[in-house]
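User:
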Amino acid sequence: MWKVYDKTGTKVRCEVRKVQYSGTFMGECFVNTTINSELPIDFEIGDYFIYRNEQFTINYDPSVLKKAGARKNGEAYVYDGVKFNSYSDELTRCDFLDYVLADNFVHFSSLPTFSFFASSIQDLADRIQANLDRVYTGDQKWTVEVHPEYVNTTNVNIDASKLKVWAALDFIKSKFDANFIIRGRKIIIGTAGVAIDNVFQYGKGKGLFEIQRVAESNQQIITRLRVYGSTRNLPVRYYNKLSDASLTNYLPNNMAVQNLMLPDFPKRTLDAYIDSPNISVLGVREDSVYFDGSDESLPEIYPSMEGMTAEQLIAAGISCSIDTGDNGNLDEIVTDATEKDGKAISDDGTWDKLKEGENIPPFLLTLKDVGFDINEYLTGETATISMEDGMCGGREFEITKCEKKGNKYILTCNRVYDDGLKLYFPYKDYNIKAGDKFVFLNIDMPEVYISAAAQRLLKAGKEYLAKNDYVRYTYEVKIDEIYMARHPQLYSLLKEGDLMLFTESDFKIDGSIIIDSLRITEGEGLVPTYEVTLANEKSVGTLEKIQNAIDSIGGGQGSSGYNAQQINSLIRTFGSKLFLSKISDDIAQGVIQFLKGAVFGEFAEGISGFGGKIDQFGSAWLDSLSVRKFLEVPELRYNRISIEVGNRWNAPGGGVVESVVPDTDVDGNILNTGTVILHLQDKEIGKVAVDDICQGIFHDGMALDNNFSDDYDDGIGNFQFSGFYTCYFRITDILEVGRNSKFRYMLRGVSDRWRFLFHPCEAMHFVGYGNFTDKSRQTSRYSTRTYERYLRGVNDWEFTSDNIGAQFGDLSNLSVFGMNMEGYSAYLNNIYMTGVIEQLENYPVRIEIDTQGDNFLAFGETMDITCRVFKGWSDITDTVTKWRITRDSGDTADDEAWAIKNKNFAGNITLAYEDLGDNAITSVSTLFTITATNKTDTAKAIISI
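Assistant: Predicted structure:
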């Protein structure tokens, strides 16, 4: 059930019980629902609800059907097919005007009808962003993110006339052959979405229960492609003039070819074409394609300067001289354009001050040595230089003169007039800069440039063929609702434009396919239903697809390119089955061998070092080591301070549990008996016997409530330790008598003093501190933090006074046996001695402070404090030779002043409210420290007031 809110988000309009989500890749995204109500609902534009963490909004006034009077029944008012749009609907309400981002120095008019030159897809994205910024700000702000590395198309002229931003997005596909996705209020251009982190397969429990493959009915499959370029910059009857070594022309006189051809034409064949690898399977299916500018979706390919380098010319045997340190790119302007006299261009582009009859002056461009004299390749048309990028990108300038100076060519060119802007280009603010790219038009390019263009034509033809030499399919899949319910994380991940990882052996699909459309229906059944249409990509093996994706980073593959996020997702899903991750937690299914060791974190060796290291010999430097089971070493070196939690025993029996199996009844209920296998070293014999009385402690990490919360020692053998549980059991049978490695046990029964039934467990250490029948195993010794006890004749779970052979330390727990002893001393049976017994009076000195039973001072009150000094129970106050009192209120300077004021303190003082310092105001207690000293002792006491 979903709540529909008004646009403020404070009022609930109604509740929706059934919805249908529809989303299309690079298309619309919305939710439909039918709402039945017993009362009319005052829907308004802006009402919304949240579905799958995304907001959907009403952008119109829904129609309503009245079927009954108000409150007559639950369907009195029916709002059928109410449409809630995603944020992308905002793009249909924002005009695409001639605006640019601030301070980018691009001309604009703000008009709805305009044209512009886009040197890259970023230029289009910037204009989309500029228009969105006009309308949507603050919480409604849109962002446009571009992945230009996956878009090959550059230098595009775009005409726009009264478009919305949504329509302008179509240029992404039509002009740049790129994809885009919308996520929230972000437009991501140049790629599809991320790969969903799950591999869907057909079959029970695998995600898909129905797959329908549909071939594109209007697709023309091509396996043999003839490819033609443009006639631009190609000398007249160029191919007709080519001849072999015997001067025989390759082409017959009656064959005329004016277009740029593939590299094999005409020297190797007069019928040049490209064959697909699939021709053996699909047969010969011919077609032709022209890259001559007649199709806006295809680039015009002709002999030009594009991409030509000095290295390529020299390799072709053509002389080329460039300056030392030059990058060698011949299609770049050398220096900024200048006036005819060589001075920097300084006009504003208007030339308003030009006198009548005067012509607009030309300007100069400096080029590198391009390997040929332009004057020798002129045609009947006016030679032109076309700028490919920079501030004059997309503009063409007529060449009126070309002269060579040193290793440079100086071109004299006419300025060009922009009728829309009423400006002549270039001018001071929009000049042609050093490094700007250019090509020549309307000249007969030399053969080396024709050969380079033929190679570009071959590459473009192969790419075109690769997109058309197989049957393109769409896949309509139905996702198993139960599978989705068992994988709830996928519910919010499925999104049109993202990549579904899809494996189907019958259809030979093993890779990622774009979700072209997605429909989710909720409310009709217990779980949502899913209908997905997948747009086919070329089927390749999983690892090859990953490699292709990685390769696409460098070359870019337009709409089929992957960005780093997609590759990460693909590798995470597919690669994680074969490779270990370097950046995420991972699991290896086999043994990993480190031939040179391993380092953990930042590492420095030595006792005062940090981090961890295990070298190739198995030697390790570590900060700490926690072992859940067993630690076996031939020698153990450790700090001389040893700390133990629990008791330390010296007894005839005990061991370490390697495994334990409690007994169960026919219904699976655990009984009070079981079997234990001891953890023994080679040739070690277990120190256990029948009727041994055993005790063990262990921390239960699975059921934490089994661990005791407090320490407890009742003095008769019942122990509890905070954070551990205590187990008592009797050994009833030795099952393996050779090494005593296996025995049966029975738990101690519940009594008034012991109410717990805990079984032994793996890795538990236990002690056999007595024996029910064997007198030779009834003696032991244990020590706690406060006392050490020697036991004898222990033949039951609990101790009696007869079992206490001796005790040292705190004797107060002997009171349970009727022996009233206090303090730290010794309890012995007999004393045999040869030395001296001397009674020493060695009582501690202490101060007792009388505050009259009150430790609180209110405003206006005083408190008399009297101090007495005792040694044992003797009052030795009269022996004190020096008294001192100090105060700690948190204000050091004030406390020192107070101490000086009370330097004559002699054991008695009257404290007033003001003596508390600033703490009197803050209600924080003040500490007073009193010190008394005589000839032999010093005593100290602290009170808090």
